[in-house]
Amino acid sequence: MKIRKIYIILLGAMLCLVSCNNYLTLTPTDSASDKLVWSSPTYAQLAVNDFYHYLYYLGNFGSGDCDAGMTEALTDEFKYGSANYNAMCYIPSEISYGGSTLTANYVDVYLGNWSTDYGYICRINEAIYKMKKYSSFTDADTKNLMGQMRFFRGYIYLDLMKRYKQVILYDENMDNYKNNTALSSDSTCWNFVEADFEYAAHNLSASGVPDNGITKGAAFAMLSRAMLYAQRWNVAKAAADSVINSGLYKLTGSYANAQNRDSDEAILQYAFDTKNYTTYHSFDSYYAPGGDKAADGNNISGGYGTPTQEIVESYELATGGFPDWSLWHNTTTGTDSVPPYSKLEPRFAASILYNGSSWKGRKIEPYVGGTDGWCTWFVDSAPDGRTTTGYYLRKLVDESHHFTVTQNSTQPWTVIRYAEVLLNYAEACYQTKDYADANAAIRKIRTRVGLPYADKSSADLMAAIRQERKVELAFEGQYYWDMRRWGLAESAFSNYRTHGLKIVKNDDDTYTYTYVETDTKDREFPSKMYRFPLPQTEIANNSAVSQFADWK
Amino acid sequence: MLIFMERLNFKKEKYLIAKTLLFVGFALFFSPMFGQVVNGTVTDATGATLPGVSVTVKGTTRGTVTDMNGAYELKVTPKSTLVFSSVGMVSKLVRVEEKPIVNVVLQENVTGLGDVVVVGYGKQRKSSLTGAVSAVSGDDLLKTPSTNVSSVLGGRLPGISSVQVSGEPGDDQASLRIRGSINSAMYIVDGIPRSINDIDPNDVESVSVLKDGAAAAVYGLDASGGVIIITTKHGMAGKTEFTYNGTFGISQNANFPKFMNGPQFAYYYNMGDMMDKLANGIISSSSNYTPIFTQDNIKEMTNGDPTDGWDNVDYIKKVFGTGTNQKHSITATGGTDKLRYYTSLGFMNQSGNIDNFNFRRYNLRSNIDVDVAPNVHMILGIAGNVDNNHKPAFNSGGTDSDGSSEEGWLSIAHQAIMMHPYLPETYGGLYTATIQNNIGLPNSPLAAIYQSGYQKTQSFDIQTNLSLQWNIPWVPGLSLKVNGSYDYESSHNKNLNTPYYVEEAPKPAAGISWAFVKTADPRGISNGINMGEGNTSFTQLIGQGSANYVHAFGKNHIDALALMEIHDNTSYSMAAYAKNLSFPDLPELSYGTATDSPISGYSGHTRSVGFVYRLKYDYADKYLAELTGRYDGSYKFSGNVKGKRWGYFPSASVAWRISKENFMENLKFLDDLKVRASIGLLGNDNVSEYSFLSQYSIDGQIVMNQTLANALARVVIANPNLTWEKTLSYNSGFDFTMWGGKLSVDFDGFYNYTYDMLTYNGGSYPPSMGGYFVSYLNSDKMDVKGFELTVGHRNKLMLGGKPFNYGINANMTYAINRYLKYVNDSPNIPDWRKHVGRSVDANYGWIAEGLYKTEDEISNSAWYGTRPNIGDIKYKDLNGDGKIDDNDRALIGRSNRPRLTFGADLNCSWNGFDMDAQFTGGTQFDVSLTGTYYNGNDDNTVWTQTFKEGANSPIYLVKNAYSEANPNGTFPRITVGNLSHGGDNGLASTFWLRNGRYIRLKSAQLGYSLPRTLLAKVNIQGLRLFVQGSNIFTIDGLPKGIDPESPRVNNGYYPQQRTYMGGVTLTF
To answer: How many CA atoms, within 13 angstroms, populate the side-chain half-sphere of residue B756?
Structure first.
């Protein structure tokens, strides 16, 4: 009968279908195999592209350098205004207070980058390994891809080294990945970093475009930075020299434009999509002056962190030398005198917004009841964008960005720029007693902003280098690490408080400036913070390491 | 929508009619000629006619069903024996012997032993079960008012633990676990793995729960968490019978803590602010304190004039009001002895107790049974539903079922809690808002409900299956069956966001001017009116082919089954987003511009294959044995490595019906006594797809030379050796019934040993390895042991000359689990941090030792972070290093599911009245006061920190908090959040874990059926009126308003609902 026939056909069909193991072999619909990725240099570049995210992560627009907020807030330069117990609120202040809060676990959470960095290193090593295993690219393609990857590996190891001083080394031999691996000596570690940057520098092509991949210049520039941490002055000097002599970079005419996309000065930039806003960051929403919420449609409050009076007083007069600020150190009645903002060198106005600065077609009003407003830290715990120091950050914040158009920020993150290379060069020259070249480099930096300079030697020269690094590179994520590197953080960042100017607008349209503390207790930098603790998970699972003595 | 439904129905009806005609044609064609016609009437002991009794010719599948008057008619041969059977009645065999009329009286089966229970790929009599199976009839389910099946099973059946974490319409299913397993149960609907969420409870014939390996092993794949089988109703022969069932009801929050009113807020906020200032040294004594809220402010709150900017509003009540719901269903069943059908059409509408939450469902189900030929039986099942879910653009609240995450700082429930009660509802024509400290955004629950836009989901599901069974005439007892099923589910989703403005009140602070600031929507306004629209679809194709052989020789009976099953599932989804729409009335993508990230899409494809056998043997229905096995292949495991893709899952079980032994004959009071034992292996392939392959996938973009470029990242580190997780399950038990069913007891003890667990790897490797080890592996081991006990009592008394029936059915389940091996335990850690030997549900946390009472006590203690104050929580320094840190965390706490669960059902009926009450309860579990996260970091929620991020606080928390005014407070120090170490009280610690034991009257129902004699005059078969309620009360030891079944971590959620309903069932 028909039905029986249908029956037998159906049963038979099913048997045929499943008789084969292949029926169960499916291909993923959302991913590609290793083999495919490493079969062509174009695909391989897509895998290498992923490592570029690390540039963003470790910069001031990302959270990798310090998960609590910009590291400047751990120094005397910057103050986060909110007393809420959150990143970019209370926690950065809490770290700067030191004391018993700084347990190994706590410091690991906010400043330890061990796990993330090693995750990145593993991915880079795997990629190098797979390229060797699967690819048959031309020599040029291999060098280009390998150069990029080794740059990133050096870059991540540099980040680890500046935090931990000694680290565990893994290269692309994946068989070496084992449970109990010991730390290597610091010189072995620095050899590794140096070799990676050297490879990248000698195999990547030169180009002055900062946001089209890693270049020879970027590798040399980063090598010069790394070798200052390693105190390998000759290597640092030679690397900086290669950048300077390449002729591809020069200081921008205006300091304010140094961070612009594709500026003459930028050596390596992490760029964002300025047309469609598909890749973006949120720096402006956090740091734009508080008045931008009402005046420009910022949908969060802005003003999370603001520059302190201490950094303001680090700027020289435009004519050289420092103004006398004692008049504005009155803590009781304050003073009606206008601070000498207008007389300061141009890097001040390019970095810091003060009472009356022009901003997006309006004047900044950081006074009590002003558009931007004033808030006394901790007493008035809801700053809601109001400043606790009397200032706002201008550098890195994009004035041309309007929140009404989009909340998303798209100004590039400048990973390294020519001015830093000059300063690296100056420091390396100083350390190798080449005072003439050091002075020449410092003079270039100062001349650009119209400051006079007289040649110096020995300690004075080093002091000048430090002053220029502090001011030139302010808020670029260097100062905290420089101070640790120089061994000055403990003395400079202990037993002190930072300050601000509380501004009250008077009925006659003048302002009263009162010197106020921005903390309710002293800041401390314990010496153990020169080297961060190993994460508990490393110790719990790696019998070849133990916690650094300071952290036990 | 309605028009669409009508069209759908129309099409479906036409289709059904066509099919029916076709089948009738077949039936007539194949209809063979028989010797004689026999007819008769079936009645019960009282003489009432019994409709729906199955009448079959013994040894064949030929038969019919009695009609509404208990009458039947059947063509038979003179030597035939007729089998009369019906649920709840003792079956009866009658030889025809050329009698033209056979009238039968069936006795009520009080023992339930004759009941047929649905098991994997078949049915068995309860008396012949050898494995651990519980069952409940659909009628019993209807005693608990619910819109979905899952939320009524907890407490009804032993072995099931149930947690319902949301009361949101359309999202109020319960998550069920069987016998302490960490895997969720597998759901089978009419033989096919399917979701049970959209089944109309009216359509359910029975629910079976397969709990041990012997019962569940036939499902091999994914059956390790046990199996829940739902069977829908089939037709009865006879005149078409219609049943209308309608209910109307209201719903309210079953449990929600009470929050402060305006003056209370002012008082406690001042108190918290003062305590913070004292602790921070800003003031030296309470006499120096200047309150933030003044007496004048409080007067303005209570003067009844909201235009002054102050009022006294209960925002919790404003948000959570009273919801309504209604359900209607109409079923038709009938047919001939050759063709029977069951059709139902259902409609349900739930309007949530938060406005603008609405869920509407239309159901259709049709099961058609056709005897195509004497030996060919065909079943066609079609079910479909259309769901419409409408919500505001903000979600209602957290809905996490595993407690690992918390949803939505901007959920409506959280915004309601954020709202300060001293604010008027509106100011200057806009809703008022409070500012949320941590994100600095305005919170306005009323704007979120009424002005934010909407999220609309319309889903359309259709489920079909067609099975053909052929009883091979030349081999008696052998039948072949094929079953094919095609399910298609699709959903279309449209979300519209309409930006709004609110008047934001300032954060309370000393000396501020209390002026409102007009503030934009917390979601931002830069995208203007914006929308997203998307589609998802899922198809499941299943084929089953099986052979079944039943044979008896002497007293030996064998029943053998061989079956093959293939699954093929595909899914896809796509979505698009637009911004700056001109106006909300035209919410179409074309009326906007593309957003920053305007499109998304993905697809998936999965397959599995299984081969099943079952051999059942009994001798004289006294000694029973069963062997089953399943050989399963999964696409999730590598086919290139031998022995990984395919798994074999056998089971064996035996039972002995002692009561059938001759030596038991004298024990007349004993109806039945059976002992059972089983062992079985279950499998699980619950691991990320393609974990055996090394792959790259897209990980965002970068901008290179001003051009967007994709970035690829490695996804997993492949483990080609990945294979099945296995559970070895042991079960033994006994069942007995006595005194004609007056007492029945079922007892089961079980031990489930799970090994080769599919484990996410990594915890025991140093982070310096950067994750370079296989991402998943077969590693951990755990076990669960426990017992289940069900005790039932049923009796009939005479009361006022009428029979009074009553029954009590109580069940209890105890299950305790622990790890036996845990790969992620680091080698160099102290024992108290290791998982092995501890509950699978334990979490890391600190051990609290109460609150600090004196400064001396603080000085002599270790503490976390900075020096605490009196009234803060004291933690135990487990490793004795003088400080509290991460290393002092131990594995604390029991599960948030009770180890011991109870259920009790009380029911009675008399003279047309019937009543049913269902209690559930649990003990030996911990409820976190929904404040502690288990991620190792500290945080608080509104339930544990006063004025958390500026929120209103539950009364229990502020009233009992430590403060100068309340030095004996049992909760931590009151704070408005300005203490640097205030957050330390929120560390995950034992302080926040409370014994969760509770008893809940989960449902109660009272019904009255009008006398048949009365109804017969108007040609109505039956009319029953009823009232019912759910979640009526709960007795527990938690702070008032905290629900023992609430989600573990949340900042506000849509609570379980208490419902009251009235309804009618009409049969004609």
So the answer is: 17
pLDDT one-digit tens code per residue, B17-72: 444 444 444 433 433 444 678 888 888 777 777 777 778 777 666 777 777 678 88
Within 13 A of B238's CA, how many CA atoms are on the CB side? 23
CB contacts of B373 in chain A (<8 Å) are: 1, 3
- Residue B633, min C-alpha distance to chain A (Å): 7
User: Do residues B504 and B434 touch, judged by C-beta distance below 8 A?
Assistant: yes
> Which residues in chain B touch residue A31, judged by CB atoms under 8 angstroms apart?
690, 695-697, 715
Helix pair angle (A418-431, A216-230), 10° resolution: 40
Residues 6+ apart with CB under 8 A from B615: B558, B559, B560, B561, B626, B627, B628
**Nearest CA-CA partner of B40 in B62, B12, B69:** B69
* Alpha carbon of B852: minimum distance to chain A alpha carbons (Å): 19
Query: Which chain A residues are closer than 8 Å to B886 by Cβ?
Result: 103, 105, 536
Q: For residue B468, which residues of chain A lie inside 8 Å, CB to CB?
A: 3, 7
Q: Convert the pLDDT of each residue in A8-58 to its tens digit.
A: 655 555 555 545 567 777 777 777 888 889 999 999 999 999 999 999 999
- Cross-chain residue pair A50–B771, CB shorter than 8 Å: no
What span, in angstroms and rounded, lies between the C-alpha atoms of B264 and B272?
12
Q: Rounded to whole angstroms, how far apart are CA atoms B274 and B287?
A: 10
Which of B874, B1041, B873 lies closest to B953, judged by CA?
B1041
For residue A393, the cross-strand partners are A352
- Torsion angle (degrees, nearest 10) of CA B248, B251, B254, B255: 180
Look up tokens 């101070």; give the residue. A483
Cβ atoms of B344 and B200 within 8 Å: the answer is: yes
Question: Which H, E and C letters describe A3-18, residue by residue?
Answer: HHHHHHHHHHHHHHHH
> Which residues from chain B sit within 8 angstroms of residue A101, using beta carbons?
865-866
Q: Do B772 and A213 touch (CB under 8 A)?
A: no
Query: Given an 8 Å threshold on Cβ–Cβ distance, is A299 in contact with B543?
Result: no
Distance CA A492, CA A490 (A): 6
The reply to whether ipTM tops 0.95 is no
Report the C-alpha gap between A51 and A60 in whole angstroms: 17
For residue A271, give the nearest of B435, B597, B703 by CB distance: B703
Question: Within 13 Å of residue A201, how many CA atoms lie on the same side as its CB?
Answer: 24
Q: Which chain A residue has its CA at the smallest distance from B579's CA?
A: A406
pTM to 2 decimal places: 0.80
Residue B1021 in tokens: 């078969």
Instruction: Quickly count: other Cβ atoms within 10 Å of residue A358's Cβ.
Output: 11
Which residues are bridge partners to B241 per DSSP? B333
Separation CA B433–CA B504 (nearest Å) = 4
Q: Which residue of A has its CA nearest to B939?
A: A85
Mutate to test the interface with A, among B768, B938, B978 (most CBs of A within 10 A): B768
Q: Do A123 and B713 touch (CB under 8 A)?
A: yes
Cβ A186 vs Cβ A167: under 8 Å: no
Q: Nearest-CA residue of chain A relative to B643?
A: A21
Among A2, A35, A46, most B C-beta atoms within 10 A, so best to mutate, is A46
